[in-house]
Amino acid sequence: MKRRELIHWLVATAGLRALDGLAPADLLALGRDVHRGAASHAARRTLTAHAEQTLAIAAERILPATDTPGATDAGVSAFIEKMLTDWHTPAERERFLAGLRDLDVRCHARASRDFVECSEADQVAVLTALDDAHEEWFGRLKYLTVYGYCTSEVGQRALGLWPQPWRYDGCAPLDATR
Amino acid sequence: MQPADFDAIVVGSGITGGWAAKELTELGLRTLVLEAGRPITPEQDYTEHKPPWELPFRGLGDRRTVAARQPMQSHSVSFDELSHVFWTDDVDNPYSTPADRPFYWFRARQVGGKSIIWGRQVYRWSDLDFEANLRDGTAVDWPIRYADIAPWYDHVERFIGVSGQKEGLAHLPDGQFLPPMALNCVEQHVRERMAQQFGRERILTIGRVANLTQAHHGRAPCHYCGPCHRGCITRSYFSSINATLPAARATGRLTLRPFSIVRGLIYDKERNRIAGVRIVDAQTKAEREYMARVVFLCASALESARILLNSGVGNSSDQVGRNIMDHIKWGGASGEIDGWTDRREIGERPNGIYVPRFRNVSSRHPDFIRGYGFQGGADRDGWRASLHAPGIGRAFKARLNSLGPWSMTFEGFGEMLPRAENRATIHPTLVDAWGIPSLHIDCKWSDNELAIHRDMSVAAAELLEAAGAKDIRPSTRGPSTPGGTNHEMGTARMGRDGKTSVLNGWNQSWDVPNLFVTDGAAMTSSGCQNPSLTYMALTARACHYAVERLKRGDL
After folding, report:
1. Residue B475: which region, alpha, beta or left (left: phi > 0; alpha: psi -120 to 50)?
2. What is the per-residue pLDDT across B134-145, written as a single tens digit (0 to 9) for each?
3. Could you tell me what percentage of chain A is helix, strand and coil, using 3-state DSSP and rounding each to the nearest 5?
4. Most buried one in A14, A174, B106, B281, CB count within 10 A?
């Protein structure tokens, strides 16, 4: 039975009983398919275009594209915007936005330009200073950047976490193919 | 007397309700299963294979909605952004506690109940447990011994499928095991070092878990995807939905009615029998009654107690709602193990290690009675270790790919003594969304549990020392919140005397002969093992007894 037919048959016959007759291999294949299909998430906005650009560049400096994709490729700023809009409290959101504005203040002090218009070297210097100072909001930015990257599709694939191996080996060589 | 609509009514479709449904229908009874929650369709409701990027909050959960609707349920270890749908809504299903004595009552209302989200660890009890109350003079004696339940453990294990390693321990009997899951290299090392140091007194074995390691009764072996608590489309772990309810349905004698909240039992005073059950439809709020010859309460320990108390039956002993037990957690330790830096785990094993109880087995501990087991395991940190690490840029990013050192962790699960004052009562005014009176739960640890909790961290550090671990970190957490292990039990205990217990040795009400309670409420003591296997075995045993008595006309 083809996988698509299997799903149609399953939906038509509905539920528990339909699964009873299937061989384990069919069940497994079925599981892969029925869980596919992404949820779409409405985009409410918290960031101005300028703030979004500032955030995207800062995230890219934290996790730059190298031989693997970086934060921009992973859509990290969209994830952070979602978190700011629908997850954080108003006070947390305001602290974060103030932090983004502070990047401009620091770049102006350094190079008389907004963060987005600074040289990459200046951007890195500003961010490194914040990191070295354990600035709280910067810790939050870094957390969200790493989290957003590592849970994105490009991040999961780059880290070798996706697709899942579908087996267990408790003592595999580090470079084992999954 | 009204004619019976069914031979049997089972209240609840979770781990014990599913078993009652299977056994009763297979023994020939036309059985109605009443489930308070919604139906579950695996191919729509299970979400274990959803990749993280498809979750709006990537696994961090919908914080605002959770805070508003599930502030208690969200404390459960397997509550997450996808699995939250398998827990109840705290606003619709309120309960209260004293302000200074919190209690977590984790509840699941859907076909399958908590069997969808359970931890799947299954351990037999032994006479070390069944004789415990008698031996140390606590509460009342169990009316059964290991020999009474052993064949029913066999019966249940053969059907559900349990992977595990035989160890030949008298106090943690071996069962009908499928091949064990593998220990990882560091766990194997710790097992060997513990054997050198402690011999047979403290052993480390792979967890005994109701996940299949080979095809079993038409269900596929585990494929190690990880989040079992979101469901399992391949039916590789045991749940009512995955196994017992399909078996019951196959008999043609099962009627399953979701959205059926039991308001109370209908008591026929003249015959001294339960005549049936009064329900309120969760969606329409319409009430209706179902009659049957025998009723099984399998609604979970506290919910079954609530039904009994709201019905005003079965409580001549005044023990219904009392003797709440859970398992105490959050003692333990972890430490780093050198070596194996060129090795890693591949795949997500839905299981850890188990160290069977070693306190008060062959020698007496000066500070407490009973004991605890350890669960846990060894692993290496991945990208999450970088969430708070210093640095930015190319070198920082490279870190995401590296693995930390191996770390070994032991987490204790400690026995709780039954005490009459740990008690659930009907709240005088608080009701749920259907107008049914809610519970007030008053429960706290005693000194014995707190002494067990302290000892967990000491003994776990000893095990790590024996394993050659460095940087050993005993737990700095205080005791877990009662109820937080979701092993609540004891609220309608079995016993040898109807004056001091609710149920006899067959899970049968002393007061009303056609009433059985076979969920965690029946437990006379708590052991330290994960209890679901014992609930299932008691349920199957009680079903066979009830059917025999029905056939003889005794019920």
Report:
1. beta
2. 999 999 999 999
3. 60, 5, 35
4. B106
